[in-house]
Predict the 3D structure of the following.
Amino acid sequence: MALTSKRRAELRAEAHHLAPTVHIGHQGVTPGLVEALGDALRTHELVKVALNRSADASPKDAASELARFVSADVVQVIGRTATLDRENPEIERKSGDLPPWRR
């Protein structure tokens, strides 16, 4: 499901304060990196990914590739940092609870 512009703006605002959780090194997108990103998305839903300067891929290409591998949406790409979002229906949500990325 593609993000609406309103939802994308909300997630961009939320992601502003997050630190990168996953880092893409000189080896690029590896199975281990995809697994780590999947785990991070499963627990936090909103994840920042930092692309190392020595990585060969462009940040937009790497973000698109990762999003495709983990069935996530690209919220934004700024510089060498991408933000991905994937909702986890298994996370219990109660009104008044903080979103998973703030816990």
Summary: The mean pLDDT is 88. The radius of gyration is 13 Å.
